[in-house]
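Researcher: Here's a chain I'd like modeled. Treat it as a single chain, no partners, no ligands.
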Amino acid sequence: MPMVKKSISVTAQQDSWIKAQIATGHFGNESEIVRELIRERQIREQETPSEIKAIRKALIAGEESGFSDRSIDEIWEEARNRHRAKRA
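Model: Modeled as a single isolated chain. Structure tokens:
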């Protein structure tokens, strides 16, 4: 797919975070980070309200059960993976 060059502005804090992502090897350059963030947002926007409601309900039930030592981020990731697997 052809690339279109863009110029963006970020805060100093955001710039530090971007540089840290590159330094840790998560990304090769700033463009990769921006593209990944856009992809994540596009996926999130494709989720229907009922799917989001179901994910929230599962998160709340998990938190209230007291039986999980996983973080909310870990639970969200598992829910997203299950959702992607159902669509595939």
